[in-house]
Design a protein that fits this description.
Blueprint lengths: L5 H9 L7 E5 L12 E2 L9 E2 L3 E4 L10 E8 L13 E5 L11 E4 L3 E4 L2 E4 L9 E2 L10 E3 L7 H9 L4 E5 L3 E7 L3 E2 L10 E2 L2 H11 L3 E8 L3 H13 L4 E5 L10 H7 L3 E5 L3 E2 L5 E5 L2 E6 L3 H20 L9 E5 L10 E10 L5 E5 L8 H6 L2 E5 L11 E6 L3
Parallel strand pairs: 5-6, 13-16, 13-17, 14-15, 17-21, 19-23, 22-24
Antiparallel strand pairs: 1-12, 2-11, 3-10, 4-6, 4-7, 5-9, 8-9, 18-20, 20-21, 22-26, 23-24, 23-25, 25-26
Length: 403
């Protein structure tokens, strides 16, 4: 099978990805969930005109001249309205958030008055509508302020509460099952024996998936046998996973059994091998409703492919309105050589120059096994196939990595 371009591979991964079903959750459980549909306000805010300051509600026509003396006939506090209309020559003491009484059309702040028993003297003229928040200045009943497809922020939850929603319709979290393969893998905290390595890929991938809002099922490490790999695939299917992610075993060696195991279980392969670096031996297929992403075993390749393909797929299944990564432009902080047939994703540090320019500095060693350089990177510099040598200061496309 020929190497598939990255853009075609991503389109294949996302093809037909429909959002998970809707469910309703309480506001406190809705943080970072994806809103399933538009949500209208159930009330008008504020429902009536309210004072924006502590002072006196007046008729602007009665308080247009400094030195005017008005009779104070009552008091308004938040939650305690005044049930009479204001007449000529009258004022009502009012506090921030208090409903403006009928007849009043301005608020004079208390600093611009002198109180004298049951009267006040105006020291600065009132202006029509000043210090009053009109009814509906924030929103009105029926206004759609939260659109379907957004990932709910903390501010969105406050807005939903103000709109009088105790719960929200959100998409069910996609379930991602992660299966590692390899006899050489041992868990962190273990002293590796000859030829063994400490398993690290899963920790980044699980965190990446959770960061995007997925539910994650860890299927552990499968031995390098066809039977063990098949059992892992079946466990993912039985768990109801929307996505199965495998790591390792995706290359062409005698012990790289993932592709054989997937095909033995009836997975229809969409592609195997991508024209990218790192991550050439990545594969994708489907087993019924379950989508499979087979990632390389090298930790940098595994993470970069997970970032480029798994993240957009999770977003699509979550019902996000924005699915694909957003490119930014930066300036190269060092020379990079000409590229070959594969699209390059160079790990890079980011710096902000004194004039505000964003500088992307590719790390010195781009080997796909180097976790230290991956952890230090804040972005990927994208080098198209056959790109010529690029000099320091030239423009480049980047993708920011999660913070």
């Amino acid at each position: 099978m020929a190497l598939m371009p990255v853009t075609e591979a991503l389109s294949a991964v996302l093809a037909g990805a429909e959002p998970c079903p809707e469910e309703k959750v309480a506001l406190d459980a809705a943080f970072h969930r994806v809103l399933a549909r538009d949500v209208p306000a159930l009330r008008t805010q504020p429902p009536q005109a309210m004072s924006a300051m502590d002072g006196y509600a007046v008729r602007a026509a009665d308080a247009s001249l400094p030195g005017t003396r008005l009779a104070v006939i009552g008091e308004v506090a938040a939650g305690r309205p005044f049930d009479q209309a204001i007449g000529a020559g009258q004022a009502v003491r009012i506090f921030t958030g208090g409903l403006v009484p009928e007849g009043a059309d301005a608020v004079v702040i208390q600093e611009d008055t002198v109180a004298d028993g049951g009267h006040i003297t105006i020291t600065e003229a009132a202006r029509l509508g000043r210090h009053i928040r009109p009814a509906g200045i924030d929103f009105r009943e029926g206004d759609v302020l939260l659109a379907g497809g957004i990932r709910l922020t903390d501010r969105d939850l406050s807005l939903a509460a103000g709109m009088n929603h105790p719960e929200l319709p959100v998409r069910r979290r996609p379930k991602v099952a992660l299966l590692a393969t390899g006899d050489e893998l041992v868990m962190p905290g273990t002293i590796p024996g000859p030829g063994q390595i400490v398993y690290s890929n899963g920790y980044a991938l699980r965190a990446l998936a959770r960061h995007e809002g997925a539910e994650v099922v860890d299927l552990g490490i499968a031995a390098d046998t066809l039977e063990a790999t098949v059992r892992g695939i079946r466990r993912a299917r039985d768990a109801g996973a929307e996505i199965l992610v495998t790591t390792g075993g995706a290359s062409v060696g005698d012990h790289d059994l993932v592709k054989r195991a997937l095909e033995a279980e009836g997975v229809t392969m969409a592609f195997w091998k991508i024209a990218m670096r790192p991550g050439k031996p990545m594969m994708h297929g489907r087993l019924g409703a379950m989508r499979v992403i087979g990632l390389p075993g090298n930790p940098v390749s595994s993470y970069v492919c997970g970032f480029l393909f798994l993240v957009p797929l999770i977003r699509a299944l979550s019902g996000r309105s924005a699915v694909r990564h957003v490119l930014e432009t930066a300036l190269l902080g060092r020379d990079v050589g000409a590229n070959d047939v594969r699209e390059d994703y160079l790990r890079a540090r980011l710096e902000r120059r004194g004039d505000g320019a964003l500088i992307a500095i590719p790390v010195d060693h781009q080997d796909s096994s180097l976790l230290g350089n991956l952890a230090a990177a804040r972005a990927l510099v994208i080098r198209p196939p056959f790109a010529p040598k690029a000099l320091t200061g030239s423009a480049c496309d980047i993708l920011r990595l999660p913070a």
